[in-house]
Amino acid sequence: MAEAVAKFTFVFCCFAPVHLLLDFWCDTMGAFLDKPKMEKYTSHGEGNSLKFGLSSMQGWRVEMEDAHTAAVSLPHGLDLWSFFAVYDGHAGSQVAKYCCEHLLEHITTNPDFQSALQEETCVDSVKNGIRTGFLQIDEHMRTISEKKHGVDRSGSTAVGVLISPTHVYFINCGDSRALLSRAGAVHFFTQDHKPNNPLEKERIQNAGGSVMIQRVNGSLAVSRALGDFDYKCVHGKGPTEQLVSPEPEVYAIERCEAEDEFIILACDGIWDVMANEQLCDFVRSRLEVSDDLERVSNEILDTCLYKGSRDNMSVVLVCFSGAPKVSPEAVNRELELDKYLETRVEEIMKKQGDEGVPDLVHVMRTLASESIPNLPPGGELASKRGVVEAVYNKLNPYRNDDTDPDILFFRGFS
């Protein structure tokens, strides 16, 4: 196993993007498992002319620190409103779990938000109410933590959407991300809160901190988050002026029923390996072959794992009535692609002859060197790893995934 880990580490360090290398270097090897946990929590639902599917997976991390919220038809007179969010915890899961259970209540019941609904809904007042809810829950968690067992050192990003009959309110605090696909393209996406962003860096320095290796004081990789109270104790500074701010950025986008397709909410474990356009194109292609949003969400996680993500992963997919529909032509192309891959895997394995059964890495590298038509855009060959592996396992039933270093290495192959 040590040889396997060493092999993975060497290849990962040679080919991984710089931001992943920084995270890998800053985390100890003890923060990762010998192999990823691929079991998933999934859910789906519908209401208010929306459909959603979600999936989360622990992956390579020792603990699962993500959480999520999915609610349609909200209480307090908000029957036609819906709320979805992803929380990416760090240094523990406590803050993420608490926010998943209570953030929505803090938003919808605070006086600023309620006053915005008393007459004709005011967009700016709703945005202010959302901001107030974030500041309230952050202070509330600090008070609870100090009274019960001292300061909780965990924290969490939060990205969400509050969907009214007329607007989508995008809410972001940290480096998780949300995007809106409209009329076949990325129409809007939230901006990540990273310590080296000019305005974030200025606030950190004004609070007496520094940004080293793209982290707050060389430690925390996000500049805004809920919790993280060790970074929120600078005397003379308000809550939004601390080293780490709990203040969300809120954007109001007017809905367009004819063109709005879907919203993706995901933690940075997804965005580490998929760009906005890539993920948008991939989801669109998957919706053309399946209307099962849980299945589509699962495919996102598996594809990102095979592209090299080493983090917890969570995604919520929210579809409007204008989302792509299943196309018989797309379904046929998918079936033909799967059959082609199955045939090629058999050919590659038979070609070895006296050299013995090739490992899965060799099979994937051979396929990657070829021009294969109709691979899912954005996902490419990584999104078909399951098909390739199924054929490989059928033809090589005596493999040992747990001890073969090449198989372990491939789990980081992209």
Give me the secondary-structure topology.
Elements: H1 2-15, H2 18-26, E1 32-47, E2 50-61, E3 66-74, E4 78-90, H3 94-109, H4 111-115, H5 123-149, E5 155-163, E6 167-173, E7 177-182, E8 185-189, H6 198-206, E9 211-212, E10 215-216, E11 226-227, E12 249-254, E13 260-266, H7 268-271, H8 276-287, H9 293-306, E14 313-319, H10 328-351, H11 360-368, H12 385-395, H13 405-410
Rg over C-alpha atoms, rounded to the nearest angstrom:
23 Å
CATH superfamily of the largest domain: PPM-type phosphatase domain
The proportion of strand residues reads: 15-25%
Shape: globular
Strand element count: 14
Residues in helix, %: 25-40%
Strand order of the largest sheet: 1-2-14-13-7-8
Q: What class do helices, strands and sheet pairing give? A: alpha+beta
As for the number of domains, it is 2
CATH class (first level) name of the largest domain:
Alpha Beta
Please trace the helix and strand order, writing H or E for each element: HHEEEEHHHEEEEHEEEEEHHHEHHHH
Q: Which regions contain 5 or more consecutive residues with pLDDT less than 50? A: 1-21, 402-414
Second rung of CATH, namely the architecture of the largest domain: 4-Layer Sandwich
CATH topology of the largest domain: Phosphatase 2c, domain 1
The largest β sheet comes out as: 6 strands, antiparallel
- Measured between the Cα atoms of the first and last residue, the distance is 21 Å
What value does the average pLDDT take?
A: 89
Domain PPM-type phosphatase: 51-320
Subunit structure: Monomer. Interacts with PAK6. Interacts with the phosphorylated form of IKBKB/IKKB.
Subcellular location: Cytoplasm, Cytosol; Membrane
Protein name: Protein phosphatase 1B
